[in-house]
Specification:
Shape of chain A: elongated
Protein name (chains A, B): TetR/AcrR family transcriptional regulator
DNA-binding region (chains A, B): 43-62
Number of strands of chain A: 0
Organism (chains A, B): Streptomyces composti
Oligomer: homodimer
Keywords (chains A, B): DNA-binding
Distance between the termini of chain A: 17 Å
Low-confidence stretches of chain A: 1-10
CATH architecture of the largest domain in chain A: Orthogonal Bundle
Helix content of chain A: 55-70%
Pfam families (chains A, B): TetR_C_24, TetR_N
Mean pLDDT of chain A: 90
CATH superfamily of the largest domain in chain A: Tetracycline Repressor, domain 2
Chain lengths: 213, 213
Amino acid sequence: MSTAEETAGGEVQPWAEVTPDAARRLLLAAVEAFAERGYHATTTRDIAGRAGMSPAALYIHYKTKEELLHRISRIGHEKALHILRTAARGEGSPTERLADAVSSFVRWHAGGRTTARVVQYELDSLGPEARAEIVGLRKQVNAEVRGIIEDGVRTGEFDVPDVHGTTLAVLSLCIDVARWFNVNGPRTPEEIGDLYAGLVLRMVGAKDAGSRS
Amino acid sequence: MSTAEETAGGEVQPWAEVTPDAARRLLLAAVEAFAERGYHATTTRDIAGRAGMSPAALYIHYKTKEELLHRISRIGHEKALHILRTAARGEGSPTERLADAVSSFVRWHAGGRTTARVVQYELDSLGPEARAEIVGLRKQVNAEVRGIIEDGVRTGEFDVPDVHGTTLAVLSLCIDVARWFNVNGPRTPEEIGDLYAGLVLRMVGAKDAGSRS
DNA sequence: GGCAAGGGTGAGCGAGCGCTTAGCGACCTC
DNA sequence: GAGGTCGCTAAGCGCTCGCTCACCCTTGCC
């Protein structure tokens, strides 16, 4: 299930699209710093320092500190949406597709916790226009999950009295992994993904929820 | 289920213990500001302004800005722990106690979203000693929930292969309510609490999970 | 009335912030 | 080898930050 973008350490590196090299190094440094201390507590001097550059170098590649966060947030959300779409629009029953979606979404939040933290928790640090764009992406994320659940209800595989509320809860459960997951903890992203897929199948009342590991 | 501390607006006001009055007004202003913009993005001038005071007034009642966050975080965690303890150590079957714990815990996160946001998401803004103290409280919170689940497994009411992982997931689900809950949204804290209690009973494989609203 | 005590204010300190500007060296073109 | 371009740096601007300090007003006690 792991893609070519994953390193041995498990951290996803989907930043190949960012060029030139110096801009990518700055963006990576910003992701680390934002994840560790939060957007507002991070200084441009810190970002530039982590990238091995002077503070002024940042402004050659990015207009403002906020543009850095915006770029990170957009790329991250697009990646998350892509992961969910792949699972949601794949073949298989709604049960299989929901399990696939949850486990891969959770793996992304755990394995790429650094990025996921920035993506999920620094939304409010964006300005109004940037936030509006990101909110649009989040609605698409929501729609993908709701789509699978609706499919399962239609086929009779799921028993879900409140589709909207349950969709919200499922996504919420996955997203919060980025808050508590610890790389040095006892569980791998894969283990959390499997555990959560099973829990979510139970939440939607899937017929064979118990039969999965 | 609502306590005397709840106002008509649904926002909990457990700050009666903070005296004198000026100190409480400052703390309340800080809770609002931290919840809206985050600890690091909030200025002491903003806090004092919301409380109708000059910037210097803050330092009569609190040594630093961080002490404000520490006090808020401790009081909030103690309140959350008290809510969970009341449900966990009440009478009734594990199923009833778990449903009670989840619904009241969720109600607190939704209804007192302002406070809950600060309590749950600004932990990393505390210094090492203050954070260590709060982490201790969080472990007690975790233990209460795990205790109920273990009871349910023992009586055979629950079917939980991974007690620690499921405990983590249940708490995570409840806590994340503080991130997304919207006071102007379509659902009341009570509705979310009931919905989540039902979902959690399904997660632990409770026998009568489906029979609850 | 005298006066200490405590809650409050206006002004401002030193530091660090996001960001700008002038200029430098490596490289390409001809 | 002269000149232009690009990526980058050293220095620093204007501003706001957390926090302090000298002073003031109200209150209660004798």
